[in-house]
Amino acid sequence: MAAVLPATTREILLSELPGGLPGPEHFTFTRKPVPVPGPGQVVVRNRYFLVFPGLRTLIGGQADGVPLPRIHVGDALFGPAVGEVVAAGPGGPLRPGDTVTHLLGWREHALVAAADCAPLGDVLPDPVAHLSSGSAAYGALTRLAEVRPGDTVFVTGAAGAVGTLAGPVARLLGAGRVIGSTRSADKAERLRAELGYDAVVVPGPRPIDEQLAAAAPDGIDVLLDNVGGDQLAAAVRAGRRGARFALVGALSGQLSPRRDGCSAPAEIDTFRLVNQGISLHGYSGMDHPEVAEEWTKRFGDWLRSGEIVFPQVRIPGMDDAPRALQELFEGRHFGTVVVELPPT
């Protein structure tokens, strides 16, 4: 029996450009008719959508090369989502009842081209795991940093969506010592106790260089950088000969209220890069299209075997989504943050 669709649905719009970091006051909820799918289109009832720091860049301005459109005042927010097809237009491969991922989160129902949806299948044991950022961590560690047995790996921003998976993945790839960074002492303890980090640097009164020297007295072989700024500079100073640095994010600029989310300047010692033969590359999933499928299979195997866990925070209901985004910017959460919508 076909699902009975509601007459209207809600979505979250940008109502005002923020002067700094966006807060709940910069968003509004709107109600609109549930769309009717045309040929090759489907209507998806969203069950989960990702709260992610990249929205800061899309709202604040657009960095060169970002493959997603800028969000203007009056536009609906968007981002990775998991949902159920509830209506399908003619000529497409999807049918009501199919569970899919797509990029039109931040709304209850989404009108999506069937070609822009990916059926989930059963590779991952939890649908929410399809919203993990682990593909970026895995791709950076295997394609750019090429973790080797015994390596000392430093993961900045280790308590975030990428970092909570990057450390355990580095260990599974053979790393001998895994060090993280986070600005919270409580999160530092969780990284050690729950995710097996050997040591955690907590930027603050004690210099980063001093903490990193204590955690890795012989230096680091691999950096997976989510932060940039002072932490990237410190990692360069700690890099061993031939160290491989993979840059995945730049939260130091993206989450700064004094910047627009599109730049993250850092002063690094280029002499040391040259003298130590340190390689430094930015990771983009678009450059490695084969990684997503490879990661999903390995992630599913690791989850089922218990070799890895998927730290996550589920925010119940769309009403709290803007607050969840603000809390993400403030560093209140541990792991991946998703909004969970009721099933009906």
CATH class of the domain at 134-287: Alpha Beta
Helix percent band:
25-40%
The CATH homologous superfamily of the domain at 134-287 corresponds to: NAD(P)-binding Rossmann-like Domain
* Secondary structure category: alpha/beta
Q: What's the helix-strand series?
A: EEEHEEEEHEHEHEHEHEHHEHEHE
Structure description:
Helices cover 27% and strands 25% of the residues. It is of the alpha/beta class and 344 residues long. Among the domains are: 67 residues, no CATH class; 154 residues, NAD(P)-binding Rossmann-like Domain (Rossmann fold, 3-Layer(aba) Sandwich), CATH 3.40.50. Strands 3, 4, 5, 6, 7, 14 and 15 form a seven-stranded mixed sheet that branches. A six-stranded parallel sheet has the order 10-9-8-11-12-13, sandwiched between helices. Strands 1-2 form a two-stranded antiparallel ribbon. The longest helix is centred in the C-terminal third of the chain and has 15 residues. The two termini are 16 Å apart. This is NADP-dependent oxidoreductase.
Architecture blueprint of SSEs:
Blueprint: E1 8-14, E2 27-33, E3 41-51, H1 54-60, E4 81-88, E5 99-102, E6 109-113, E7 118-119, H2 134-144, E8 152-155, H3 163-172, E9 177-181, H4 185-195, E10 199-201, H5 208-215, E11 220-225, H6 229-238, E12 239-247, H7 251-254, H8 270-276, E13 279-282, H9 291-305, E14 312-316, H10 321-329, E15 336-340
Parallel strand pairs: 8-9, 8-11, 9-10, 11-12, 12-13, 14-15
Antiparallel strand pairs: 1-2, 3-4, 3-6, 3-15, 4-5, 5-7
GO molecular function: oxidoreductase activity
Protein name: NADP-dependent oxidoreductase
Domain Enoyl reductase (ER): 23-339
